[in-house]
């Protein structure tokens, strides 16, 4: 209980949160009513009952259906604001939010409605909650390279509203090399780069995210331990892994938390962090991820401090903000 209070009180950065994955069933139903969108679920309970996943794809199908209620700038604001209130309660002081513009623009939602609603919530989180908040635009890897280029083009007039690009959605069969050119174009714009790799996919996808996409962090990366040479590189170059323990259990990457490898990643000297991924779907926000993982793996205050320090080191915060929490 003392450890849980310590974890709760500790300032931390969240670096792997899909803002569409923070959409709680209650808000999905509220937005469906507000926007007159018909949902294939009768009630909040009915929707929640569908949250039984066997792998990444089984989750993504429901996650994209949930996002269908988001139509207007205010909807994106409301979703992100609800997340920031929840993050504040967990003492998250810095957050980098992934968003998936293609999920919305493919339904006819203007790119500006998406990014302006999210950015307004970020600015308000800074001013009213003291949370430093940034946006990272993710390309959906199950879609084409051409579609990713179109999205980057739509984003260009909004260059000052987000700090980086990422790569998410269905991993296996959509390797990093498919997006090598679009990531080069994004880096030319001065954007940071991250990518999901080694969630379900092989260690080679982590190598390719580093060498072909030149990313600064790996999202998930838990499959890295299958390749000792890769582990050595991640350690020596201090390449952060944004690990999401409850997500990995819900998507059956590990059988249960006691089998999760985050303790081993830390013992091997990697810059691992704990994050919530899609908290509305996976059963917990930041502190829930920490507390359940620490309990299952019998980790203690030393590991909590390491994880919090890692989260600031791995962040795209300014040097001044990083120094405040070092
Ligand atoms: N989009 C939302 N959550 C994701 C995850 N865990 N992996 C890949 N794409 C995602
Ligand atoms: Zn993710």
From TrEMBL:
<keyword id="KW-0862">Zinc</keyword>
<feature type="binding site">
    <location>
        <position position="278"/>
    </location>
    <ligand>
        <name>substrate</name>
    </ligand>
</feature>
<keyword id="KW-0479">Metal-binding</keyword>
<comment type="similarity">
    <text>Belongs to the metallo-dependent hydrolases superfamily. Adenosine and AMP deaminases family. Adenine deaminase type 2 subfamily.</text>
</comment>
<keyword id="KW-0546">Nucleotide metabolism</keyword>
<dbReference type="GO" id="GO:0008270">
    <property type="term" value="F:zinc ion binding"/>
</dbReference>
<dbReference type="GO" id="GO:0006146">
    <property type="term" value="P:adenine catabolic process"/>
</dbReference>
<comment type="function">
    <text>Catalyzes the hydrolytic deamination of adenine to hypoxanthine. Plays an important role in the purine salvage pathway and in nitrogen catabolism.</text>
</comment>
<feature type="domain" description="Adenosine deaminase">
    <location>
        <begin position="11"/>
        <end position="325"/>
    </location>
</feature>
<feature type="binding site">
    <location>
        <position position="277"/>
    </location>
    <ligand>
        <name>Zn(2+)</name>
    </ligand>
</feature>
<dbReference type="InterPro" id="IPR028892">
    <property type="entry name" value="ADE"/>
</dbReference>
<dbReference type="GO" id="GO:0005829">
    <property type="term" value="C:cytosol"/>
</dbReference>
<dbReference type="InterPro" id="IPR032466">
    <property type="entry name" value="Metal_Hydrolase"/>
</dbReference>
<dbReference type="InterPro" id="IPR006330">
    <property type="entry name" value="Ado/ade_deaminase"/>
</dbReference>
<feature type="binding site">
    <location>
        <position position="18"/>
    </location>
    <ligand>
        <name>Zn(2+)</name>
    </ligand>
</feature>
<dbReference type="InterPro" id="IPR001365">
    <property type="entry name" value="A_deaminase_dom"/>
</dbReference>
<feature type="binding site">
    <location>
        <position position="196"/>
    </location>
    <ligand>
        <name>Zn(2+)</name>
    </ligand>
</feature>
<feature type="active site" description="Proton donor">
    <location>
        <position position="199"/>
    </location>
</feature>
<dbReference type="GO" id="GO:0043103">
    <property type="term" value="P:hypoxanthine salvage"/>
</dbReference>
<keyword id="KW-0378">Hydrolase</keyword>
<protein>
    <recommendedName>
        <fullName>Adenine deaminase</fullName>
        <ecNumber>3.5.4.2</ecNumber>
    </recommendedName>
</protein>
<dbReference type="Pfam" id="PF00962">
    <property type="entry name" value="A_deaminase"/>
</dbReference>
<dbReference type="GO" id="GO:0000034">
    <property type="term" value="F:adenine deaminase activity"/>
</dbReference>
<dbReference type="GO" id="GO:0009117">
    <property type="term" value="P:nucleotide metabolic process"/>
</dbReference>
<feature type="site" description="Important for catalytic activity">
    <location>
        <position position="220"/>
    </location>
</feature>
<feature type="binding site">
    <location>
        <position position="16"/>
    </location>
    <ligand>
        <name>Zn(2+)</name>
    </ligand>
</feature>
